[in-house]
């Protein structure tokens, strides 16, 4: 195995490097040659261009810009059918309302669930659902990676001068998902109106950072799921366990679940940082695992770690795809 | 550099295929999709790349575009290793996949092109100029506002070719560009491609099943089979290499036993009063015709040129 | 007679087709199990506060959760199945070809969906229940008759669910964005089937209405049949409820289909 080499494409090629070393021209005898190609001089090109190699930061910036203009184009095209869009956004809002109605029905029978009041559960719900909603809005198309690999449209993304990650992320960008975020924010607002949070002036900033950190963690799970589909094309549903399943889990108080479940969610899949730890602090409650106090604020660092991990997984997935085809 | 614009040296692509053999057992098998192919293409050349299904044509194109990483050999396009610098090279190449579109299915053509402009960072003036030229030559006038999914196959293909050319690529790869098209669309596409190659000097590499594409567009043809290059040269040279035969079709007055004893020709088929005689493509038909006219009651005759498909089929058979 | 053979072949083909998606099946079992565990914990919390809520004791409530996970894929409560495929054919116009086939479009897709459901019940239904019964104390019946009654009810539920989704799928003839509508269909069926919370827990008049809606026939009723909530003659009541909805919705689908056919004919395909 040759030494892995970094390249401008962001993919490390061990295969090519080793292959180049033993490259041998094909045996000439195996090719039958005819009269040879006729010579014809093509006219000079109008402006030959040479694009300089790009650094990681340039690529990142270009990826974000590309993401924005692809998304903007999708928005523009959905806005061409405004009524359809409004209906869908409203539908998205109403149907996610039903989700919370189920919790309200539970509370029509009980005053508290595992020691948490409806307002407290609403805070958990609002934070978790807002995070997932934002991640879904921004990166909602990663469940289509497997389909794209199967029908070959992944190839068309790979021949364009825009990172595939940005193209997949912006694919079918759907503003109607705002309906769901709206519902989540409404629940969050209602919860805040009925609660007195601990932490004084720091309560709201902590809340905002937690929600955004959660968006990053859920987003990473989407990307990880997408990367996994390069290897197992039909496995799109697994990521639902982690995203929708995770979000459902976090909507309920940790005291509902067995300690092992809580531990698993904190350390194995760091979803607890999305919600539970900061929310328990805001509600002035003890965390069931008895983690040190700083863990409540570890969210952003954990989120950054998750993003880096997801980025690496995506590269690995893409590399696997590019060496095996579909 | 212009002489060696595209260089392949012993290019290989090996896939590991896992197949189920029996209920639980799985067999691992190596498939050498591209098995040591070497050739160079000069800048401005137009080359046909043909072979049966599964010969490795698309795999080669995928490596040339940087989608697939070769498992062996050396590959350079405009001095760049495609698999290493895929996105950088992307600005200089155009790709058309006949089987699927590179356009956005739900968007009108115009929006797809606007997106291409931003992705490839094409200067506004150049973009408009190129789009106008393609729209005119490919007859896309009334279609720009139509979503891609509503286009016919021929319209979509013309739309795809336009999309691949807006950024003035140095190389254009076409994977089955005329597959499934009607006669008129095929003619439009061919006329456009040969014009493009002549006026812009764009290097074109096309794979196809339709040998008429090759006959009308490419001076040079490469034939591959089972991942190996079988032939590389002029189209006409294929006949010699393939030891191909022309066919003389004669209509006699009545049904007769197969014609025998004609020098340089043999009867290969009879159907009532009609008989088919094969003779080497390099030989002249005249002496054969006169021999038959002398000895048999001839009503009508025609000479059929060798079918290039047969020639190639015979090449595959020989390998 | 020959046509019946065609429908059977379609169903069998569909069963086999879904059986080849091994990884998707494994992924589905995993997802069902994860959701089952989450719901089981929340139900445990709820039923320990209110022990006989909705007429279930705690182990019945947990059985309800896992039965729901078993039926989820078979009844296509979270979508999947034929909807996207049919919509894609409508979108691309291929459906025009289907409409001129000698077989009936609705029966064709119903056969395919029944084949799929049969596979999903076996492939994705059994494993989560087994896992659930290891982790939690369930109240599964031992009598084979109870299981048979359950199977009949599940079948009726699948047909009802199909008829509902067929209506949603056909709307693609008139609407541009099928994805949004599918999402709506999914969320309605999640909520009103009893997937999130048993419909017997829904309070007052709202509960009465919800229990009478067609979605109740897809999951709530089969689960109740398994839990023995319908005994003796009342079992036929449950079946009748499901069958009536199935027939009504199938008829509605047929009406919508003929409207769509006319539209296709007018547009010339």
UniProtKB/TrEMBL annotation, chain B:
**What main location does UniProt list?**
membrane
The UniProt record lists the keyword ATP-binding: yes
What GO cellular component term, any one, is given?
Answer: plasma membrane
Q: Where is the ABC transporter domain?
A: 6-251
UniProt xrefs under SUPFAM superfamilies: P-loop containing nucleoside triphosphate hydrolases
Q: Which UniProt keywords apply?
A: Antibiotic resistance, ATP-binding, Nucleotide-binding, Transport
The membrane-topology field of this record reads: Peripheral membrane protein
GO MF annotations in UniProt:
ATP binding; ATP hydrolysis activity
As for subcellular location, the record says: Cell membrane
Biological process terms in GO annotation = response to antibiotic
| Coiled-coil residues | none
Q: Which Gene3D superfamilies match?
A: P-loop containing nucleotide triphosphate hydrolases
Q: Which InterPro entries match?
A: AAA+_ATPase, ABC_transporter-like_ATP-bd, ABC_transporter_ATP-binding, P-loop_NTPase
What protein name does the entry list? Methionine ABC transporter ATP-binding protein
Species this chain originates from: Streptomyces nanshensis
TrEMBL record, chain C:
Q: Is Endoplasmic reticulum found in the keyword set? A: no
Q: Please give the InterPro entries that the UniProt record associates with this protein.
A: ABC-2_transporter-like
Keyword tags = Membrane, Transmembrane, Transmembrane helix
Q: Name one Pfam family in it.
A: ABC2_membrane_6
Do the record's keywords include Transmembrane helix?
Answer: yes
Query: Which chain regions cross the lipid bilayer?
Result: 21-43, 63-82, 121-140, 146-175, 187-206
Stated name of the protein: ABC transporter permease
